[in-house]
Task: structure prediction
Amino acid sequence: MAMATVDEADVEACGFCALQILDADGHPKTTKGCQVESPWHFSVAADPGTVLFEASFVATNPLFHLQLQGGDAGDFLSGGWWAGGAQPRDRSGLLCVLEPVECQGLVAELEASEASEASRSFTLQSSLPFCSKQGASESGSKAPALRGAVRVEVEAQRLGPLRVASVQLEMPTAAWLEWKEYRRKLRENRKAWPAAKAKDSSDQDQGGGGDGDAAGSAMGLEMGGAATMSYDDSGPPPPCSIL
Result:
């Protein structure tokens, strides 16, 4: 059996970034301006030891955009990054999860900083579910889990609402390499257990569903202490329904 390989040169690096608004209970909001999705583009940062994943959105799109509202307390900005374009989305393709942050605080911070260039962006934290804690510190305690920094740029529309224009995920190269190796192991595991895959297919044919890697068009995950999303991206971003 041929072993799965790792794309060391990153020539095949591609995938999607999806952002959406969740309510206080973690459920996706289904109104206009609550979900957006776009392919991300991979590059190596000027900073050694860092890689970038950048996705851009059309903030002027009247239907498919993501708007930050300051008036509704309990709304949270959430999101995730996936590798590849498999449908339905596969858990093994989950790359990074944006840690939910309350929209009201973000809008207040942007408004307080006036209409300067700096006021049009902010930085959030993301968790890397498949990355381990990297060794131990000099004091002997475990090192914290690797994390990613997410820079979000927004544009103010004519009547004042703030819409997300782009997001840039900055990840340590060590985390990117570890994720690629972990995903290779997942592919090897699938090949080693074909019977389990056949059983899942049989269950689905009988309407039993199955609990394989494919999570369907509505997938809810909780990894690294951060709730992610469930959504369906078959076509233009639909009213929210959500590695």
Summary: Residues 7 and 106 are 37 Å apart (CA to CA).
